Amino acid sequence: MNTPDKLPLVSVIVPNYNYERTIGLCLESVSRQTYPRLEVIVVDDCSTDDSARIARESGVIVLSTGTNSGVAATRNIGVRAAIGEVLLFLDSDVALAPDAVQKAVSRLLAEPNAGAVCGIYEPVPLIRDSLVEECRSIQAYYWRETAEGTVTFLFPSICAMWRRVYDDVGPFDARLRQTEEVDYGLRLSQRYDLILTSTVRGTHDDDHELWPLVRKIFTRGRLRVPLYARRRKFAKGFETASRAWGSLAALLAVPALLLPLVLGLAGWLVPVAFLALSVGCDVGMYRYVRRTRGPGFLLVFAGVQFVFNLAVASGVVTGVLYWLLSGRFRTLYDRDGAPAAVLPAR
C-alpha cells in the first residue's frame, strides 16, 4: 500500500436509526482501524433512543435527516457531506475488524475494474442474545463466505466504494425503504466489478427475536419479485437457484403434512421427501453447522432455517401475486418510466 500521505481519504458513513445498543461498539471499532486516513460521518434518521447522543459524544461528525427517511436517503446524505475519495458504508449494528478498512482499500487499489468491495460477517453475533440470532449469524456468514468473488448483490453494511463510482452510478434510490441494496448492486455491477471478500470482516448484531426476523425475511422476499421478474434471473451472489428450490420445498412440506390423514403412514413419505430436498439444496451449510457447532445445535439450526425458508418462499409467492395484480408493484423499481436497475446513471 502507498505511504500514509498518499493514501486516499476514506469517508466512513454510518446510517443510524435507534441502534443505541451497538453504535458505540461500531464507532469504537472504527477508531481502532489500522488505516490512517479516515473521516467518520454518522447520519441519524431521527432516532428516538440515545444513539445520536452516543455518536456525538464519540467525537465524530453527526448529521440528521430531519425527518425519518429510510436507510437509502440516510446514506445519500452522508455522501453529500463526505470529502473522501473512498466511501465506506458501515451499518451502526456492525463492528469492524481492525484491518477491515485497510484491506478494503488495498483491494480497490489493486483491481482497477473494481467499483466496490464488500465484506462479510463473522459467524457469531456482536451481542449474543438468543439461539435465533446465533442461527441467523451462521447462515449469513456461510452464504456470504461461499459467494466470495464477483457478485451483483451489494452488501452496504460493510462496503467500500470509490466516490467517482457512486457519482457515476448515482445515489441510492431513496424511495426504497428496503431492498435498495439489490437495486444498487445491479446498477453498479453493470459498469464495474462488485467484489465480495472474506478478507474484509465485521461482526453484526442481528435480530434476536424470531417473529420480527421472519417478517423482515418475508418482506424482502416479496419486494425482490418485481426486480427479478424484469431480469429473469437472480442476482449473482448467495441467492442461488438451489436455495430457491430449497425454500419452495420447505413451503410444499407444510400442506403435504395433510397427506398422512388420507394415505396413512405412506403419506409421510411426501413431507419427509420435501424436507430432505430442502436440506439437500443447501447441504454444505448444514454440514458446516454440524462440523463447527455439533449435532445438538444442528437440530436447532435446521428448525430455525426451516422457518426462514418458509418466510422466503411465502414472501416470493405473495410477491408474485402482487406482481400479477398490481401495476404499481410491477413498477416499484422504475425511475422515469424505465427500470432503475437498467437506467443509465445520471
Number of DSSP-assigned strands: 11
Helix content: 40-55%
Between the first and last Cα atoms, what is the distance in angstroms?
33 Å
Pick out the low-confidence regions: 337-346
> From the alpha-carbon coordinates, what is the Rg to the nearest angstrom?
21 Å
Structural class determined from secondary elements? alpha/beta
- Overall 3D shape: globular
Q: How do the SSEs run, as a string of H and E? A: EHEHEHEEHEHEEHHEHHHHHHHEE
Largest sheet: 9 strands, mixed
Secondary structure blueprint with pairings:
Layout (H helix, E strand, L loop, with lengths): L9 E7 L6 H9 L6 E7 L6 H7 L3 E4 L6 H11 L4 E5 L3 E3 L3 H11 L3 E8 L9 H16 L2 E3 L6 E5 H7 L10 H10 L3 E12 L5 H22 L9 H16 L2 H5 L5 H12 L2 H11 L1 H31 L1 H4 L3 E2 L2 E2 L7
Parallel strand pairs: 1-2, 1-4, 2-3, 6-9
Antiparallel strand pairs: 4-8, 5-9, 6-8, 7-9, 10-11
Helix pairs in contact: 5-13, 8-13, 9-11, 9-13, 12-13
Structure commentary:
With 346 residues, this protein is α/β, with parallel strands linked by helices. Helix content is 50%, strand content 17%. The chain has helices at residues 23-31, 51-57, 71-81, 100-110, 131-146, 163-169, 180-189, 210-231, 241-256, 259-263, 269-280, 283-293, 295-325, 327-330, and strands at 10-16, 38-44, 61-64, 86-90, 94-96, 114-121, 149-151, 158-162, 193-204, 334-335, 338-339. Strands 1, 2, 3, 4, 5, 6, 7, 8 and 9 form a 9-stranded mixed beta sheet that branches. The chain has a two-stranded antiparallel ribbon with strand order 10-11. The radius of gyration is 21 Å and the shape is globular.
